[in-house]
Amino acid sequence: MSIKPKLNRFDLTMIVIGLVIGLGIFATPGDVALSAGNSWIFFGAWIFGGMVSLCGALTFAEIGARYPVTGGFYKIFSYCYHPAVAFMVNWVLVISNAASVAAVAIKGADYIKPFLLPANMQGDLGTKIITITSVAILYVINFLGIKMSARVQNVLMIFKIGLIVLICFAVFKSDAPPAAMASISRPSNLVTAFGLSLVAVFFTYGGYQQTINFGGDIINAKFNIPRGIYTGMLVVIVLYLSINYAYFHVLGLGGLQQRPALAAKMVGVLFGATGYKITSILIFLSVLAYVNVNVLANPRVYYAMAEDGVLPAVFKKVNPKTQVQEFGMSFFVGSILVVLFFVASFSKMLNYVMLFDTVGLSMAALSIFLLRKKTRELDSTGIFMIKWFPVVPLVFIISYWFVTANILYNFFTQNLLAGCICLSAYLLGLGIYYLCMWYPRAKEKADRKELVREEKE
């Protein structure tokens, strides 16, 4: 059963915003401030990151317009490079996505548990109970159908955008305290500081690329995918720059470096205990939106892999009434729940997730050069095309390579084992692909030999 288009441009725009705005903007500005150690580098990283992400959004908008298929993030590798490369990159990203969703869900549960659980259950057990329950509820909602999931996503996104606007308007409160005067930790190397700042910035801006997985779900995909992507990203960039100005205005750079729960604490400073509680609830709803959209998006990659025969056919099975990949979605949610028992720290996960993301995203963006040659016949059909080509994709690709180099340098100078684990994950994926390709052929060859032997007897 194939997937039928059911999502309109507004749905896709909300999905883009939901994929990008997770918990990151409520947590990572502190990490950026710590890496930057300088207000110019801090704001420069957010502005540069927004410009690079917009270049990436425009690049993926054209990729989505030229190749609108379900599971597009996998398919583009297979079409432009080789199925082995597609599997190697995407199997790592699927694991990485499950891990990042689990980590963000845990962080979100930490905000809400003081209002839901008694004091004796405020530890890790209480966090995991809330997290697992939340994921289970979203799983059931997604089982009801893709349109139901999109409606829930739209409602959650309204809460999320409302939270960011609330934080931004806090700077206009007449009795707002002056920026915090806490001591500032400053870097010794400005280039390295800028590069490491971009790790958290790009993580916070990332996610929009997954929208090309919905190519088969979007009505009039060749036109609505690009418009949905760059409209959503423009909204995200404006919101991010606004909220970071609000953080800096109220807390100062030193305060940013020392406050992990930035949004709730800042609104608490401005509006008291009630403001802290309201913000904590809104942040939890924001996390639910991020989890929900990932549960919706990631199984599309499984569908594409199953179409190419590198995963069992059950992964592309779609319920004809609800348009839900019931097995694929169950597998992804199961992966999240497994990771929940092992994820220890959101911050520690950041470098692992970003290494996988920067490699995958830069390679995916690089495919636009091959895709333009392979689909020249579409140039005259009025589809979206990047105006400043090839400058726009090259800005994105080179910037992500710069961040990749900084992460690898950091790994191999401070944690050699972590760097080796990350690189070996790709080699393991390549081995799994060739094993999956070899086994059916070997079995078929053995069956033929057995048949010949029986005929001779």
Description:
With 457 residues, this protein is mostly helical. The protein has one domain: Amino acid/polyamine transporter I (Up-down Bundle). Helix content is 75%, strand content 0%. It is built from 15 helices and no strands. The chain has helices at 9-20, 28-36, 39-66, 72-80, 83-116, 124-143, 146-169, 190-205, 221-257, 262-297, 299-307, 326-340, 346-374, 391-414, 416-456. Helix 6 runs antiparallel to helix 12 (326-340). The mean pLDDT is 76.
End-to-end C-alpha gap: 43 Å
Low-confidence stretches: none
CATH class: Mainly Alpha
What name does the CATH topology carry? Answer: Amino acid/polyamine transporter I
Tertiary shape: globular
As a whole number of angstroms, the C-alpha radius of gyration is 23 Å
The tally of beta strands, per DSSP, is: 0
**What share of residues is helical?**
over 70%
Whole-number mean pLDDT: 76
How large is the share of residues in beta strands?
under 5%
Helix count, DSSP H or I runs of 4 or more residues: 15
Structural class: mainly alpha
What order do the SSEs take from the amino end to the carboxyl end, as H and E? HHHHHHHHHHHHHHH
Write the layout of secondary structure elements.
Elements lengths: L8 H12 L7 H9 L2 H28 L5 H9 L2 H34 L7 H20 L2 H24 L20 H16 L15 H37 L4 H36 L1 H9 L18 H15 L5 H29 L16 H24 L1 H41 L1
